[in-house]
Amino acid sequence: MLAFLERKRLEREQQHSAHVKTKQLSSSSSAAPASTPILLQQALRPAAPSSKVSRTAAKRHPPARKSFDPLALLPAELILRILDLLPFASLVLCSGLTKAWRSFLRRHRDLWRHLPMIERRPGTLNNAAIKSLVSRAGSQLQSLHIRATGKSITSAGIRDCGIVAARHTQLTRLTVEAMSKLNREALTALLVPSLRSVSVPGTVVDDAAVATVLATCLRLEQLNLANCKLVTGSGFEPATASAVPYGDSPAGLACLDISGCISFTPQGIENLTRHPRIASTLTHLFAQHIQSLNNWCLLQLTDLGALHTLHLSHHPSFTSARLVQLFSTLRNLQSVSLPYCPAINDQVLQTLAQHSGPSLHSLAAEGSANISGLVWTQSLAQFTKLTNLQVAQCPGISTTTLETIPSTLSTLSVRGIDAITDRSLDALTLSAPNLHTLSVGQTRVTTGGLKRLMVLMPHLKVLDVSGCAHVSSAGLAELRAVAGRRGATRGGDELVVVFASFESGKSVRVTGF
């Protein structure tokens, strides 16, 4: 298309230049000598042709200019390809430019198969807009994302959208977030058997709605119920699993997020381990910030043998013996998060390294004060595939520990550890040269050590030095100079330095690396 438009532009420029040259030649040939009197010059001037007179009159009353639509000249296949590459917001703007664009977008419903309707400002999204866009997509709709914080969207409007969406057999992803008015009736109107992912965080859905989702969406693989305060877990009871009306068996749930469900009970955890579509297939469980998740729940989680990702929050009843039993049963874990848990000691970390060391990719154990430096050093050497390590405020971490971390590490946080000095940064440049994100805030590092780190780590993108008492505003200027020199020698990649000194207390973003 670009070549076609460029060729048309060159043709118009050639025609314009030829017209200008012809006009200059005619004016020079009819011009009289300078010595000729003014009256004779006017007499020798040729009469204006009738076409010129008509053009002069046309300038006084110009006709309506016809708009030139280059899109209409392109093949339909090329137009479809161009519009398919546009984001959703640009696609909506294109539908209002010309009649040709509008009719083309209405004919090709597959261009509207992904509808991310996110309300940027209150009042910009309403029930009529949702219903119109969903009906425009028709049977080609594959994913629907509604996010609205205002009062312009009601449960009745969502139900009307669901009536239209009930005919959509290709809908696989449904996300409705930040809507306090989404109740069970409105959610039920949006459900179709083809859904594989349902995400309703922060809504008022209850256990009956959860049971309806599991009974209707026979291909469901991901369910996000984060911050749904009415969910207690009774919707996961095995008795609520209805019979499958089709010949093939339903898919098993692989990912479940119940973080922030403050009403979730220990009985709900037991229901997860007994549900036929969850017990043997669940691989990712996010259950942070649930106050009722006690030590007995850890025993129930041992029945989820397929778990790869386990994110929990500390409970006062957690014991080291129960954690050892959990990590001995759940082998080949890939991501573990249990911050600020006093029950994590040397034996727990050694058990995790023994059974999940070769497979673990992410470990978040901030505030683990009962792990010695020797066990940290021995265990980290067994995590051969570790890419994310969050050990902020862990007193057992030292320079010796950082010398043994795996070279695969890309994200590291050692914030709030007094033993981290410039020598620790030098050890990181040798043991983890591929770091992308590093947080050394509230440590004893200095400006000189940070300058060496920025030079010796070419892949570093984010460096957090907020709260470092030995890095002042003058040191920030030196870091900015180092970042500028690196930007000149390495192609202008960006490095972000988060800095907050005790003098100013301001966060500064340094770029230009």
Automatic annotation (TrEMBL):
Q: One cellular component GO annotation, for this chain's record?
A: SCF ubiquitin ligase complex
SUPFAM superfamilies (UniProt xref)? F-box domain, RNI-like
Q: Which Pfam families match?
A: F-box
InterPro entries linked = F-box-like_dom_sf, F-box_dom, Leu-rich_rpt_Cys-con_subtyp, LRR_dom_sf
- Domain F-box intervals: 68-115
One of the protein's GO biological processes: SCF-dependent proteasomal ubiquitin-dependent protein catabolic process
- Supply the Gene3D superfamilies for this chain: 1.20.1280.50, Ribonuclease Inhibitor
Q: Which SMART domains match?
A: FBOX, LRR_CC
> Which protein is depicted?
F-box domain-containing protein
| PROSITE patterns, alphabetized | FBOX
Annotated segments matching region Disordered: 45-64
